[in-house]
Amino acid sequence: MGRSDLHRRLGNRLYWHQRLHDADDEPRNDSRWVAELRRWQAARLASSFAHALDDPGRRPAAEFFLEHVYGDRDFTRRDADIARTLPVMRRLLPEPLLETVADTLELGALSHALDLHMSDALHALAPRRRKLDAALYAEAYVATGRPQLRRRQIRLVAEVGAGFARALRMRGVSALLAFARGPARLAGLSELQGFLEQGYAAFDALDDADAFVAEIERDEREVSRRLFAGHPSPYAGP
User: What dihedral do alpha carbons 77, 17, 70, 58 form, nearest 10°?
Assistant: First the structure.
């Protein structure tokens, strides 16, 4: 991807992300199911990542995914950092990290859009319920459909990890991030700086970053396949 195309993608993804989270533009943000979906999905992912969390070498990368990429967290401040610093980021960050930021924004927007559709399905399926369980989640997942978008969502999870893995192979990235720490703090950009630094450090601790990313993508694709197939134990191992 050319740098001008990458800059355009960053701007478009940021705009999409902000519109989806705007309560005036998207009233479904007030749905009681949105927070419950995030809570339930974060708990499911923590269970699915348990084997990685129990491995000291992979624990930092697993925690990074759960806390900063694919978990139950409000990323409003981080994304506001991105919006404010987009012109500077375009000039200073190496292309792999810029692509990772764009993938992260797209993943956040797509995941939230799918959660909003899921909340519609849950309102229809269980208008009086307030808590999710595995059976109701699976029913709403199938009712929401959009298998191509689910595949894209999982691919973006892998792309975020792959971006940090690529950054590890570039000279000077670690020094660049360390150099930016002070200016980022002074500028009030600690969320974005923390995301990039923690992601880089977490992947640097892995023996094989590419294998870790491939495992996540494979496992999440299998979960999605089982959910759409109506498997009685979609989150169990093979």
Answer: -70
DSSP H helices, 145-208, are 147-168, 173-186, 190-204
- H-type helices in the chain, by residue range? 3-21, 32-48, 50-53, 59-64, 76-92, 95-125, 134-144, 147-168, 173-186, 190-204, 209-229
Residue 11 has, within 13 A of its CA and on its CB side, a CA count of: 9
Q: What is each CA distance from 2 to 16, 87, 98, 101, in whole angstroms?
A: 21, 16, 12, 15
- pLDDT tens-place values along the chain, 238 residues long: 556 777 787 778 778 877 887 878 888 888 899 999 989 998 999 998 899 999 999 999 999 888 888 766 666 666 666 766 666 666 667 777 888 888 888 888 898 899 999 999 999 999 999 999 999 999 999 999 999 999 999 999 999 999 888 888 877 777 777 766 665 565 555 677 778 888 888 988 999 999 999 999 999 999 999 999 999 999 865 5
User: Hey, what are 210's tokens?
Assistant: 């590419």
